[in-house]
Amino acid sequence: MMKRGLELLLWALLVAAVAGCAANDPHRRAKEGAAVGAVVGAIVGNQVSHDGGSVVGAAVGGLTGAAVGDYMDRQQQAFEKELADERRKNQVQIERLKDQSLKIDVNSEVSFGFDRADIKTAFKPTLNKVADILKRYTRSTVHVVGYTDSVGSAAYNRKLSERRAKSVTHYLIAQGVQPGRLYWEGRGERDPRASNATAAGRQLNRRVELIIQPVTDGQTPDASPSPAASGH
Questions:
Q1: Environment class of residue 71 by beta-carbon count within 10 Å: exposed (0-12), middle (13-18) or buried (19+)?
Q2: Which residue stretches of 83-177 are H helix?
Q3: Which of the four pLDDT bands, split at 50, 70 and 90, describes residue 147?
Q4: 99 to 75, 139, 165: CA distances (angstroms)
């Protein structure tokens, strides 16, 4: 677990000020006000922003029983439809997990340059699609998790994976996704999907995952658990 709330809250406030605060969002001002208050009380954890759970909970609302599966079904269908071209090109994979969460696996080769953490211009339209769907399906949180291969030191790889996860998070916030729903984490070379002994395996291990989790009744997004490892 790492302290992330303060940095991302300040970023979110900066984005809101520059972008004009997205006036069409009825919850935007409440969210920004909650974010200001939370800067003082940012806590240790892997939250992107811990910006007032009561405000977020009131705006998002929780799902119960069968409604969870139905809600995530519809959200999955939206992602599969909008990202159909990326899936055909093997740039993005979408998987439904046992706990009803969705995992969007992004090949870092198409999203970042070698040893860089700035998002490629060509990949931004894909993230725009993701942001648009997330803004429609507000009863879910998003964990952005970065991974690398094992080339280089473990410490360097962890930092690189953190920077990449943070870049994706910042971009989604800039597109209007509520900061209180977003978390980021870099796991470096941990939890590989394949062997790092081959070029093909290393490519699979260089990735960013978006884990989209439903908010259940009685839970606010800031209480969303960190996703389990997704390697072997």
A1: middle
A2: 84-88, 108-111, 124-136, 154-174
A3: very high
A4: 15, 15, 23
Average pLDDT, the chain: 77
What residues pair up with 104 in beta bridges, in sequence order? 94, 210
CATH of the domain at 75: 3.30.1330.60
Q: What is the pLDDT of residue 61?
A: 57
Q: CA–CA separation, 3 vs 87, rounded Å? A: 34
Residue 150 in any domain: the answer is yes
- pLDDT reported for residue 208: 94
Separation between Cα atoms, residue 69 and residue 100, nearest integer Å: 6
3-state secondary structure of 198: coil
Does 55 fall in a domain? no
Q: CA 186 to CA 14: how far, in whole Å?
A: 23
Is the pLDDT score of 66 beyond 80?
Answer: no
- Kindly report, residue by residue over 88-101, the tens digit of the pLDDT: 999 999 999 999 99
Of residues 173 and 53, more confidently modeled: 173
User: For position 27, what pLDDT does the model report?
Assistant: 41
User: Would you give the DSSP letter of residue 59?
Assistant: H
Neighbours of 111 (CB within 10 A): 23
- Kindly calculate the radius of gyration of the chain based on its CA atoms and give it in whole angstroms: 17
Euclidean distance between CA atoms 119 and 123, whole angstroms: 7
**pLDDT score, position 17:** 46
User: 22 lies in a domain?
Assistant: no
**CA gap 215, 105 in Å, rounded:** 21
